Amino acid sequence: MGRLKKYIYPYRIYIALTLLIKLGAAIAELFVPYFMERILREGTMPHQQARIFIYGALMLLCAGICLFMNITANRMSAVSSGKITRKLRYDLFEKLNSLSARQMDELTVPSAESRLTSDTYRVNEFLARGQRLGIRAPSLLIGGVIMMVTMDARLALVPVSLLPIIALSVWLITRKSIPLYTREQSVLDDVVRVVQENVTGVRVIRALSKAEYERDRFKGVNDTLTRIDTTAGSISALNNPIASLVLNLGLTAVVVVGAYQVAGGASQPSVIVAFLQYFVMILNAMLGVTRIFIMASRSTASAHRVADVLELPGDLAPVEAQHRTGGRETVPHIEFRNVSFSYTGVGANISHLSFRLYRGQTLAILGTTGAGKSTVINLLMRIYDADAGEVLIDGRDVRTFDKSELSGRFGVVFQNDFVAEGTIADNIRFFRPLDDAAVDAAARDAQAAEFIAGKEGGMEAEVAIRGNNLSGGQRQRLLIARALAGDPDILVLDDASSALDYRTDAMLRRALREKHAHTTTVLIAQRISSVRHADWILVLDDGKVIGSGRHEELLEHCPEYRLIAETQMGTGEEAGA
To answer: Does 153 have pLDDT greater than 90?
Structure first.
């Protein structure tokens, strides 16, 4: 928890007050057996019956104080732990959103989800229950021993001698369980990953009849998690049987030794009764200390996992901007200068890529799967930083832009983009302050107005999660409308029209030319018809440029491009038309 102390520090006074109230409740609880012993000793004497009412009233007062203080402190602990966890979870969510793609690759999405949910929950559990037990259990343990020694020092040796046995069992159990609970969190990441993959790919799994295989895969990780949790729980569960055994032995020993002392006149029966109450109190306090250790071990592992993310350094921080020369029209809008990049550092995904694109022009990128097409977009939007070379926008290195400034320049449809649950208008607007006119215009330009008008409710028609109630073409047009709604400087379409028919695709391209002539477009597509009118076309293979130029030039000089064109559009004049 030390690494998260900055979240606890603002509530230090509030937490200290909670612990102080808990201490007062524990002290009041310690006096209940004491007054009971006084009733049994003094209230049974001749003409002393009035003491029964006096000590009885004091017992009720202590019980009432204990009840009131415990309820108050428990509510306060819930408030402080809730506020701390809320801030922690919010900061963790913000941090996860700010991580670079490379950092998220290393962390993995399932692990991020697990840390944001189960790990923060365990931190919250420890903060809440730790305040409740952290002072009460030790106070009752130490205070109970002191009260017994005060009443009868020799008889107190009997229960006190059993405490090392309980302490040893706590140490052994904690030592065995802590590594298991730490391991459990890692396995939980695997469970989240498998579930996430199944939920995302449920249609493919059913289509390929792989449901049985996926059930077996989930069963494997689930069985591993169950086995670790069962083992850890079984070890932790030894606390209660051992405590019960020690309790019974201790109670028996107190009664036997106490009986001998009463028979010899060295003690009073009332003391024996009080000792039994204190011994039960001490034993429960020891179990409370045990639970604290177990919770601390589990929450410490979770706190470290959360802190590991919060303390990750930002690896995409803006660098100092260099002076830009030239005017808006003379400086390329987008420029790659000898750019190279690798996701793993082993093999290059992009090698020595260079091109220039001026404002309002369209760049089209073609290539086989894994050729590096999406990587170009990732570098342009600074989702990743180039390993070598420069990526420039308006003559400025993209690394010099503030994150919000850079992202504000783009309208983008990724290859595997998502549609949120809500209305069509909400999905196009996407939490931006856009008026209805901008939303309607974007829908028309994206060729989505026709199908939107056919929906009951129009723009207010409900969209299911992930757009499951839309066809592939409708979903793509909705995403393109979202990208256009903000009137971006740069429009990025990563295979965003693959589900559109040729007529709709052609109308979309015409609308982009007429209504968004000022927008620079970067287009990834597999159709020659979609890229043939681009100002510049790059043909990539294994991260290298194997052809560049306009459509007619590539037909003449790039065999790979000509083969694609002839396959899709025929030969001769048809391909070049």
So the answer is: no
